[in-house]
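Q: I'm building a small set of examples for a reading group on sequence design. Run inverse folding on the following structure and report the sequence directly after it, with nothing in between.
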């Protein structure tokens, strides 16, 4: 039996991926569940297993190609070796059948030639046709028959009475000023309607690009971009305008090179673009004195390495932030605009942004509040390595409640991190520097860590943001505070 292997569902909200490598060739024998190709989605790299065992008869995709869920990947023939003899036998029978057909055609051609010669040799009866009719009568009769047959097959178009004619609507024309909306209930899925409500958009104002004018999430996002960039509150007259004007022809000024976005980069662009439009960001900055913490980190670093971890500032901040979220639950929440509610989460799963050659990946460390710093240092090292080696699964990047982004290893002083929707806050860390700090009547050299907190102003006020960031800074400076309040 021949099985057409199509790309299965890879996870929630994953519709496509890029083929990184194909692990089999035509003619290879594969076992069931054997990996046959490697797919990179916008969230992870996944090995796709064969659904059945058999011989690979055809490969329908190639490395570097973008494929969608449901697209044909491979054709696998189960037990193809046992069918080889039958295939050859069938091919022989087919050849014989073709030969017989050709012989029959030759016989028919020969008989037609004989009949033609016989007709030529018979004397013609001038002006007569079968039935004793003249040639003109016979031709007229055949014309009538042909016309009747044509009328049966293709009835002539009849003009529609004026009273039965409906109003003609030219959809390509713009609606008249003051006209009612063309539809009362826009064709859209419940999730799309919810997204429109959360963004404060009337779904009936959004032009749909799908079949029958069906509205997708992308249509809603495009409409929001249109409203923001154009400063309008009414719907565009045709398709939504792009968020940015068309690019100029750069080749007029010099040589260029175009490179398609990877799935990770494309998804990142979509996510941060949507988050920046949908969430009113506020960014708060502060500094933490980590002079004492750095001494402790170096003294206990060897112990963390002995158990397979690495005692980094990020590992320590995971524990600090988890404790802060318990004290300030608004930062561990999500906004449900549709129901006018705030959802407070009772679990503490923190995302950590990891820089990879493919772009930014954000694995989730789960139940941070229940693990000690050594455990967190081990797990952080493991997920970071998996991210760089394309081994993260989709599930390992879902369900986060707060995000930490550390750029200290690269440099910089402060930055404005973008919130990872549907979270409401993200903490950015920059490179620490020795600075003169005035204390006890004199300046002292202290190692200061810049902190940047972005939060959703719909849920969190400025005072709450300042308190949260100050609590984090003091917990870093005074570890006893974690024991006392965390």
């Amino acid at each position: 039996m021949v099985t057409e292997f199509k790309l299965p569902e890879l996870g929630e909200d994953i519709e496509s991926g890029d083929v990184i490598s194909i692990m089999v060739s035509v003619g290879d024998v594969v076992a069931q569940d054997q990996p046959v190709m490697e797919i990179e989605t916008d969230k992870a790299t996944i090995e796709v297993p064969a659904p059945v065992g058999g011989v690979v008869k055809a490969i329908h995709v190639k490395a570097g190609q973008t494929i969608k869920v449901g697209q044909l990947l491979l054709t696998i023939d189960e037990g193809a070796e046992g069918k080889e003899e039958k295939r050859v036998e069938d091919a022989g029978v087919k050849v014989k059948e073709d030969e017989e057909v050709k012989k029959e055609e030759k016989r028919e051609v020969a008989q037609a030639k004989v009949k033609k010669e016989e007709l030529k040799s018979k004397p013609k009866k001038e002006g007569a046709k079968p039935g004793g009719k003249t040639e003109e009568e016979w031709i007229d009769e055949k014309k009538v028959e042909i016309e009747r047959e044509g009328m049966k097959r293709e009835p002539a178009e009849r003009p529609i009475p004026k009273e039965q004619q409906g109003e003609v609507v030219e959809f390509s024309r713009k609606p008249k000023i003051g006209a009612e909306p063309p539809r009362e209930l826009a064709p859209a899925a419940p999730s799309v309607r919810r997204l429109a409500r959360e963004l404060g958009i009337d779904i009936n104002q959004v032009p749909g690009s799908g079949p029958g004018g069906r509205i997708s999430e992308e249509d809603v996002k495009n409409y929001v971009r249109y409203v923001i960039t154009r400063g309008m509150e009414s719907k565009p007259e045709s398709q939504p305008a792009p968020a940015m004007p068309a690019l100029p022809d750069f080749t007029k000024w010099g040589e260029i090179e175009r490179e398609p976005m990877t799935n990770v980069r494309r998804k990142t662009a979509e996510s941060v673009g949507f988050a920046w439009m949908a969430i009113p960001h506020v960014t708060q900055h502060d500094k933490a004195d980590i002079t004492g913490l750095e001494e402790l980190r170096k003294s206990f670093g060897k112990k963390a390495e002995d158990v397979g971890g690495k005692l980094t500032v990020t590992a320590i901040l995971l524990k600090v932030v988890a404790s802060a979220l318990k004290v300030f639950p608004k930062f561990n929440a999500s906004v449900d605009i549709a129901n006018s509610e705030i959802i407070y989460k009772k679990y503490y799963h923190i995302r950590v942004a990891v820089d990879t050659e493919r772009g930014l990946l954000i694995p989730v460390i789960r139940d941070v509040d229940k693990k000690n710093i050594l455990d967190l240092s081990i797990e952080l090292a493991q997920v970071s390595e998996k991210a760089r080696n394309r081994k993260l699964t989709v599930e390992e990047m879902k369900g986060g409640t707060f995000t930490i982004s550390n750029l200290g290893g690269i440099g910089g002083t402060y930055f404005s991190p973008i919130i990872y929707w549907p979270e409401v806050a993200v903490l950015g860390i920059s490179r620490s520097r020795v600075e003169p700090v005035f204390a006890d009547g004199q300046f002292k050299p202290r190692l200061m860590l810049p902190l940047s907190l972005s939060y959703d102003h719909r849920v969190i006020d400025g005072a709450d943001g300042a308190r949260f960031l100050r609590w984090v800074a003091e917990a870093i400076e005074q570890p006893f505070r974690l024991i006392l309040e965390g």
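The first strand starts at residue 2 and ends at 6.
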